[in-house]
User: Which sequence fits this backbone?
């Protein structure tokens, strides 16, 4: 199998037309005609991840987060992104990024998050149609098998999602009952309206900032609407994707490449003090 065959398979699983307009997923580095016998997966293309992929002899590194979020004019090896790129290129390892297309795709980051939380019959909160007959789109809303209170849901989330020093934070009445849950993997404070319209009892996402969260909770109070917020780390909300990604890639590539997850915690925070 060549890199182009692996890319074709990945883009069948996670079509690029599901991406947000500002996003640029796809092949970021490497030779499409190169041989592809080893594929590794990681959340972030950091220098250490690039080194680990190179040392393993990977022909293709698949990450969720892009190496470049914005236009690049200089790429010296003294820059962290340039350093990661040079490590991969010297090792002959291509880089494919699946970002917002993976967020929206069936069995992408949001569906994997729902699976970890045990949500049933989850559907996108912002639809992008169907992929292979399955609903695609950003976020998901589904039902817990058993109703619980907000505090219990937050503690369950802490247990079921990858651990970071941030833990889990909640806003709202800890004793309010929750059954219907909206989720948005990654930074989700731009989706408060969609979560509200979904009639969810709680919205779980990450990277909630002070002012948007405060304003939303005050708005809920003015509306007389009871709803909770649960804030987890960015890393915790997106890493469950690998539960599906390696399984689906194994089926897609039918043993033509060896697969490996680089289980490196790339959450940037080292300690929390309370």
Assistant:
């Amino acid at each position: 199998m060549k890199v182009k065959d692996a890319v074709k398979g990945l883009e069948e699983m996670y079509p690029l037309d599901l991406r947000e307009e500002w996003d640029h997923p796809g092949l970021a580095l490497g030779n499409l005609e190169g041989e592809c016998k080893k594929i590794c997966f990681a959340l972030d293309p950091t220098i250490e991840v690039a080194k680990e992929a190179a040392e393993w002899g990977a022909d293709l590194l698949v990450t969720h987060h892009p190496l470049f979020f914005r236009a690049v004019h200089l790429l010296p090896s003294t820059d962290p992104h340039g350093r990661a790129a040079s490590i991969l290129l010297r090792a002959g390892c291509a880089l494919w990024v699946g970002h917002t297309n993976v967020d929206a795709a069936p069995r992408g980051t949001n569906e994997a998050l729902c699976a970890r939380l045990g949500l049933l019959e989850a559907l996108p909160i912002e639809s992008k149609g169907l992929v292979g007959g399955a609903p695609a789109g950003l976020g998901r809303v589904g039902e817990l098998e058993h109703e619980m209170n907000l505090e219990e849901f937050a503690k369950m989330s802490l247990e079921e999602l990858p651990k970071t020093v941030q833990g889990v934070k909640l806003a709202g009445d800890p004793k309010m009952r929750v059954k219907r849950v909206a989720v948005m993997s990654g930074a989700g404070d731009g989706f408060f309206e969609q979560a509200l319209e979904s009639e969810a009892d709680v919205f779980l996402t990450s990277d909630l900032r002070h002012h948007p969260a405060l304003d939303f909770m005050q708005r809920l109070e003015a509306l007389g609407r009871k709803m909770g917020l649960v804030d987890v780390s960015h890393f915790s909300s997106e890493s469950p994707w690998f539960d599906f990604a390696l399984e689906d890639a194994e089926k897609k590539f039918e043993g033509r490449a060896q697969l490996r997850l680089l289980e490196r915690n790339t959450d940037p925070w080292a300690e929390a003090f309370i």
User: Anything to note?
Assistant: The mean pLDDT is 97.
